[in-house]
Design goal:
The radius of gyration is 21 Å and the shape is globular. The strands form two sheets. The protein has a nine-stranded mixed beta sheet, with helices on both faces. A two-stranded antiparallel sheet has the order 2-3. The chain has helices spanning 37-51, 68-78, 94-108, 127-135, 188-194, 204-207, 235-244; strands spanning 2-6, 9-11, 33-35, 57-64, 82-87, 112-116, 139-148, 152-159, 162-169, 172-176, 199-203. The protein has seven helices and eleven strands. The termini are far apart. It is α/β, with parallel strands linked by helices.
């Protein structure tokens, strides 16, 4: 059984991002980059499935400039078998990313696609759902637990009222949530081995898709600073402030 795991190169979650001086975009100069945390969870889950003998091959894929190879090698150090790099210098919108991944799904024909529910930069939470629709695959999103058999996958997902369990036939698409697993660190020998694992590069033109943007970035700015909180000595004082200062109760 083959698994495709799309991953994204993003600013490391420990980095405090800031806009460029002209507000045209986020300042990525000298920023530490890493695998999107939700994508890292997807890689970890695929590796665990392979270690359990449920799948035979893990393919990681990423769309981006040449630096995206760093994250693909990192994913292979974690346990992926090979990688596909779709070279693209521009930032793609979710639909264009989903179309690129659709081409890879059609080429590789994986039994399972596992990907993060969203990236921490765009925060769109759109690509998994779009990809499932384009590929006409059954999907189970926000997985917090996953059980795979040869014919289907059972996914537990958190919803407002508790937990929901879905069973979808293979091939299928799963998007991962935070509580699915805790990603491992790559050991040095595996980092060295990852440098020799196969990595295939494709250009956007080879995929033959339209990536024309449909949205325009107008400005990036920092949020207004939050005001410091205050302590009140009694419930009556709290109600008074809510009524007369915040004016949120009548």
């Amino acid at each position: 059984m083959k698994v495709l795991v799309p991953i994204k190169r993003v600013v490391d979650y420990n980095v405090k991002v800031r806009p460029l001086d002209d507000g045209s975009d986020v300042d990525l100069r000298n920023a530490k980059m890493s695998i999107n945390p939700f994508c890292e969870i997807a890689v970890e889950e695929a590796v665990r499935l392979k270690e359990a003998g449920l799948i035979s091959e893990i393919i990681v894929a990423s769309i981006g400039n040449n630096k995206a190879v760093e994250q693909l090698r990192a994913a292979m150090a974690l346990g992926a078998d090979r990688a596909i790099h779709v070279v693209c210098e521009s930032n793609l919108e979710p639909l264009a990313i989903a179309k690129c991944l659709q081409q890879l799904v059609e080429q590789e024909e994986p039994s399972l696609v596992i990907l993060g529910k969203q990236s921490i930069d765009g925060d769109n939470n759109q690509v998994p759902q779009m990809l499932a629709a384009l590929c006409q695959l059954p999907q189970a999103t926000f997985a917090s637990k996953l059980e795979l058999t040869e014919e289907s996958v059972t996914v537990t997902r958190e919803v407002d009222g508790g937990l929901q369990t879905l069973n979808v036939d293979l091939p299928a698409l799963i998007s991962t949530d935070l509580r699915l697993n805790e990603p491992r660190f790559a050991a040095l020998p595996n980092i060295m081995k990852a440098k020799k694992k196969p990595l295939k590069s494709l250009s956007i033109s080879e995929l033959g898709i339209d990536i024309s943007p449909r949205c325009k970035l107008i400005q990036v700015s920092t949020p207004e600073p939050r005001q410091a909180g205050i302590k009140v000595s009694s419930v009556d004082e709290l109600i008074d402030k809510l009524r007369n200062e915040a004016k949120v109760v009548s």
